[in-house]
Task: inverse folding
C-alpha cells in the first residue's frame, strides 16, 4: 500500500527500495469553500480531466492486475485538494495566470450547462478578472504552485 503525504509518496512495491519518491512538481485543486459535497467532487473531476493532455508527463504507466486485466494509467503523483473563500480563489487564479502555469477553471455558470460547447462559451463570455470561479486546478513546479495557493487550506 502507498503512503501519501503532501507531495511525497512512499512506494511499497518490489520495484523500489522503499525510498520516498519526491516530486519537483505539484498538482493542486482549489475549491471555493461554500460548495455542496456533490459539487466539490464534480468540479474536482472536471478540473483535473484536461491535465494529462496539457502536461503528459503527469501521467504514469498503465495498470495491470495479477490476472493481466489492463487498466488506464493515472496521475503519477498525488493530487492535493485545497479550499478557500472566493477572494482566495480569485487571488490564486490571478497568480497562476501571471506565472503562466497550466491552469483549468470551473465557473459557477458551468453548473447550468450540460456539454463542453456550452461550457467553453460560458467561460469565453466573461473577462478573466470577472470569472465567478468555484474551482481551479494548477500544475507546475512545487514552489510556484505553493505561492499560487497562498492563503488556501487543505480540504478537510
Result:
Amino acid at each position: 500500500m502507498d503512503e501519501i503525504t503532501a507531495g511525497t509518496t512512499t512506494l511499497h512495491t518490489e520495484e523500489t527500495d522503499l525510498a520516498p519518491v519526491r516530486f519537483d512538481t505539484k498538482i493542486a485543486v482549489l475549491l471555493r469553500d461554500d460548495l455542496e459535497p456533490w459539487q466539490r467532487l464534480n468540479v474536482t473531476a472536471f478540473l483535473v480531466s484536461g491535465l494529462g493532455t496539457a502536461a503528459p508527463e503527469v501521467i504514469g504507466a498503465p495498470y495491470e492486475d495479477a490476472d493481466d486485466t489492463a487498466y488506464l494509467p493515472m496521475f503519477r503523483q498525488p493530487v492535493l485538494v485545497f479550499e478557500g473563500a472566493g477572494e482566495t480563489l480569485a487571488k490564486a487564479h490571478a497568480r497562476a495566470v501571471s506565472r503562466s502555469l497550466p491552469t483549468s477553471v470551473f465557473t459557477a455558470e458551468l453548473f447550468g450547462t450540460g456539454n463542453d460547447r456550452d461550457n467553453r462559451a460560458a467561460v469565453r463570455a466573461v473577462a478573466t478578472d470577472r470569472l465567478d470561479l468555484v474551482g481551479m486546478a494548477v500544475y507546475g513546479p512545487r514552489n510556484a504552485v505553493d505561492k499560487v495557493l497562498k492563503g488556501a487550506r487543505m480540504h478537510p
